[in-house]
């Protein structure tokens, strides 16, 4: 694979088999610098497996992974995160019995290894402000409403100021007001920090409004790629996933 610098991540022929099940098959995924890319598909389409493959949590059965122009197939999650790819998980990943401040401080471990304690504290304050969780910094994370817990999980990941932030269903369980404000956070992160975002999400209205491009998976294979407008009118996607109600 060659990389001209416009791609932060590329996969070629990436596949993962679990016994007799081919969860991801021959995936060629490109993530362009500066975009918000949505990865969508029905349950069982291979989205979570793809996330685990590109973040190093599982190793591919075949194919290649290139991140920031470096071949890194089979690398560990720690090594990949230190490069600047940081991910969240479907279920909020934070320490329930720690304060929000200390949770975000943990997120500075990668990317601020040589920073002073003062610099890390300033990073926590800045991150909390961006995510809108400053009023909750001294609260125990496990005591907060679900929507705030989701934001805390994103804050932990973003504290490292990754080049590529991978968000696994960050809008699950949020009400419409929380969804709108969280999408604004994504746009601000991209705009103000030149951070590229990969978003796995089932909220189709949100995905269509915030993403520059979409990649649709179906049965572990890439069914379509395009802008939201192109995906919305793609007959194969409509038949497999979106349904007629999304045509409008």
TrEMBL record:
It holds the Pfam family BCA_ABC_TP_C. This is ABC transporter ATP-binding protein. One of its GO terms (cellular component) is plasma membrane. Keywords: ATP-binding, Cell inner membrane, Cell membrane, Hydrolase, Membrane, Nucleotide-binding, Transport. GO terms for molecular function: ATP binding; ATP hydrolysis activity. It comes from Paraburkholderia rhynchosiae. It is an enzyme of class 3 (hydrolase). PROSITE patterns: ABC_TRANSPORTER_2. Its EC number is 3.6.3.-.
